[in-house]
Amino acid sequence: MTAHDTTPEDLAGDPQEQQEQQEQADYSDLAATTARFAEIGDEEERQHLIFDIARWLVPLGDIKVRAYKNALIAAKAVRPGDFNDAIREARSALSEQARADAEDLLDGLPNPAAAPYYTDHTGLHVNSHFGPIHLANFVPTITEEVTRHTGAETQKLFTLKVTSSVSGAEGSVQVTKAGLKAARDWAYDAIGGRGIIYPSSRDEAHVVAAAQFLSLGTVQERTTYAFTGWTTIDGRRVFLTHTGALSADGMDEGTAVDLGTDKLNRYALPAPDPAQAVAAVRASLALLDLGPDKVMAPQMCATYRAVLPLQPETTLWTFGGTGAFKSHVAALFAQHFGPELTVRGFPTGWQSTANAMEGIAFQLANVLMVVDDYVPQAAATKTDLAKLNEKVERLVRGAANSAGRSRMRVDGTVRPELYPRAQVMCTGEDVPPGQSLQARTSLVEIAKGDVASERLTEAQRTADAGVYAQAMAGYVQWLAGRYEGEEDWPAVLRAELAEGRDAIAREAGGHSRAPEAVAGLLLGLRWFLRYAIQIGAVTKEERDETYKRCRAAILDGTAVQAAETRALSAEAIYLNAIRTALTSGRAYLADQNSDGVPPLTEATKWGWAKDDTGLSARGEKIGWVSGSDVYLDPGAAYTAAVAQAERMQVPLRTSRARVHKALFAADLLPSADPGHLTTRLSTGGARQRVLHLKAEVLTRWA
């Protein structure tokens, strides 16, 4: 048998001898303990030492265990896998010893009933003031206590083992702290209807207390994490995915990360392999050539931006018709975080509830979360469409504002907010509704033919082989070194982001959010290219060319989006609706002087129609016209605009006062001033307040 074939039984040896050695061992001097490994050449002796240290450490608690683990791994004295195995075996050995001690204690009692709770062949009993009471026909024990970190709060979970005293059937169930009290529920979940708790005073409370008593000294403790991304464990910056904790020293698979579902657990970075790093990075950057820069650059930059320890600045929204491969391209970038995150492996979709999407977006911190297939045309009713758009509203606005819904606990305290921490990427056949939401997204249009199927298939094979995930794993490990080595590195990132935002604002302008969104995407690209340069994956010329291409593509896309977004402003919707109402016969303008037909050459433009008797007005009167000036009745015009905008499926949800202020801010009310947006006009024998516009405005906003 070789040194690597050493088993836990071999290491444990004779229990009494092991206990005597353990009592004599003292590993409290960490430096001296680390130095002992340098003196050992034999692998079997090294394994014995690791196991002895583990036996000494486990009773001292998880904090001490992780501190020694980090120090020994950093000094390259032990391998992570060997240390994790030793800790598991040490915990198992100590638990067995504790069980044996407990049995010896009960055996030494003159009567089992002298203990508060005891068991026999009929099940569980309590020693009450009135004598023994038969509580249940099963024996409950707590086998594991799990501390679960959600990223928002810390939860306690308990694993209970239930053994039927009648049939011998066994079952295990995990419950929360609150669920621990419901003994009948967890007994039923564990062994079904065979588990009986006999009615008595406080029977369930006694069963719970008995489970605790019978498990004293034997409960294994475990810590798990239910989120991805950056966190601090024992003073070290690590990046969590289902595989474990990735730090500057590599992957620690002993850190348990369980995200709750099979699909969420597909976020699993591999252990970085330096031998693959260069090829993996070059393969990832080659995705820029899969399609036009305007399509690929924003998605690639968002992927590299996701892992930086800052809240994302924008939601990426890729849209296009069926057959454009938008979902498949998004999957390639998602597979940077795990090769199983294919089109069929996205963690959520628009069919999920808004609360579920919000919770998942909180869990998936610092990774790319794809929400696929927004198709408003498929909504069967207006109610279905409203529900769909409500989900879009909550997700996009929550991501932009780093805000979630506040909720109350039963005890009246406020629960932590679950705001989106992922870099969200949505795909669909249409864009999100409304100017405000579109301003909070970076729109990427992809057309059929932009991506060739042959090249896509080749990229999918690369993704399925884990190459892109390997590129991301190496990048994250490199970032972890910066996070640990540089004081307040996030502040450095924020300063770099602000500098880039200000430069883009001076150059490109646009919506106030656009420069920050562009700066955030380019920030992610710059850091990935710095990593690529350091490992020799690209030359400086290749770095500069890649950055230049991506920057130009993103800025061009932002300019196009800004122009399209302006068409969804309150003033634009209002004026388009007025113009359409006039030309479609639902409203008309009268001549200012006569309050009748305007000049014949322009009457049809202002809502009048020719018939056998001449010209007749159509619809409701919403104002007057005089030469190149239009005077709108504020109330009638707003009512007509709201109705027409609804028919055009571009709802005007802005109040009348806000619409008037938007018109003034756009310099479209020539006679207005900040104190008086309306103007007094004499017409039809009366003076009234009107909105004064130039006639050509209605044509300009068509």
Report on the structure:
The strands form 6 sheets. The chain has a 5-stranded mixed beta sheet. The chain has 702 residues and is α/β, with parallel strands linked by helices. It contains 23 helices and 24 strands. A hairpin with a 2-residue loop joins strand 21 (620-626) and strand 22 (629-632). The chain is 45% helix and 19% strand. The longest helix is centred in the N-terminal third of the chain and has 28 residues, at 80-107. It is elongated and about 110 Å long. Helix 10 (293-306) packs across helix 19.
Main sheet record: 5 strands, mixed
What structural class results from the helix and strand content? alpha/beta
Q: Strand arrangement, largest sheet? A: 6-5-4-7-12
Radius of gyration: 34 Å
Overall outline: elongated
Distance between the termini: 85 Å
Topology:
Elements lengths: L7 H5 L2 H10 L5 H9 L4 H15 L4 H13 L5 H28 L9 E4 L2 E6 L2 E6 L1 E12 L4 E11 L5 E7 L6 H9 L11 H12 L5 E6 L3 E5 L2 E6 L2 E4 L2 E3 L3 E2 L16 H12 L7 H14 L8 E5 L6 H9 L13 E2 L4 H10 L4 E7 L7 H20 L21 E6 L6 H5 L1 E5 L7 H12 L2 H19 L3 H20 L5 H21 L5 H27 L3 H14 L3 E5 L16 E4 L2 E4 L2 E7 L2 E4 L1 H14 L8 H10 L13 E5 L2 E9 H6 L2
Parallel strand pairs: 4-7, 7-12, 13-16, 13-17, 14-15, 15-16, 18-21
Antiparallel strand pairs: 1-2, 2-3, 4-5, 5-6, 8-9, 9-10, 10-11, 19-20, 21-22, 22-24, 23-24
